[in-house]
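Risk register update: the risk of archive-format incompatibility is retired. Evidence:
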Amino acid sequence: MFCFYRLFLSGQRIFGKAQPAMSEKLAPLFASLTHGIYVVGVAACGRKNAFTAAWVMQSSFKPPMLALSINPLHSSFALLKAGGGFTVNVLKSGQRDLAVHFGTPMVGNKLDSISWREAGRGAPILDAAMAWFECELAGESPSGDHVLVLGQVVNGGLLAEQACAMNYREMADEESAKRLLPGSFRP
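Archived output:
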């Protein structure tokens, strides 16, 4: 299987047929993965920030842990590390405006126009979220152009029990979502 996968990535001939390079197929392949939409909050040294993320998942039952992927050049990465933790706010289906708000670079504080409160370490919990998790930083690992961050869940709450979680497909045609893909991966 490894050899087949390696040949597929290289765009070489497999079973006598020329295969397109993987980069030509990445956009539809990645579109087939399911992702929720989250707002990750961070705080350190009196500063707070939040950003939209889709690459968040449960990574352990015992202890309960979440993993998220973040660009180490993002200003929030330094706050996450300095603060030793983060919050994950699960957005409700239909909260596209909130996802765009926190996914768009802004001058000033993104939290000024949003109702929120502080978690134990000071990271933001959005009042409009479906649910939230508070995590202590437990580890990190390089992952290409991002860093995979592990957080042990220390607190959380369900704010809208009847709501459905927002799915990345709700953002598929959003220009800010398209800008996140490298040029060669855009459909």
